[in-house]
Amino acid sequence: MKYDPNIKQSRGIERTQRAFATAMFDSLAEKPFDKITVNALCEKADYPRATFYNYFDDKFDLLNFCWFKLGQDTHLDVNNTQENKLTIKETFAQIYKLFEDYQSLLLSIIENNPIDSPLVNHFVRHFTDVIYASIKNSVDTKVIHTPSELVAQHCSTTIIEILKWIYLGQHKVTLDEAETYLTELLSGPIHLQKNKQ
Known about the structure:
Blueprint: H1 11-28, H2 38-45, H3 49-55, H4 59-73, H5 88-101, H6 103-112, H7 118-136, H8 148-168, H9 175-187
């Protein structure tokens, strides 16, 4: 990715990158990702191809930037989790809010890009990684025996599955209800017992 999130960008650069991100989101709401071309994105953003390639390697690089900017809107991104240690519940609430705030955009994208498409898998993978990094950096390894990597993998997968069920499945669930689901799933709703003889 050409974009370096650790470098403060000028307003002009931010405006240009935002224009391309908006063009990508608008395009995804209209057609499948594989039908979107760099030329069409440049036309929508009202910038020449040379400007596009100043900031992005290709449309996949722009897509990474788009997901990064969405994550940044919730103050969750892979690059700042070291400074911002969140509990699993706080991480879940922020991702829930992101999905809620962008639900209409996500649903319009799903209309043109099936749930099992590379685009949707790319989105899910990106946010699973963001959640994983946030949780891994927050796990207190002094109080558990399970490796922090395994805890983070388990929690991030569970969080994403809950949010996919709510938002992609279009189930109306409040944050309180969703947090109850998270608590039950992470604390083990199925208890293994010996069979009674």
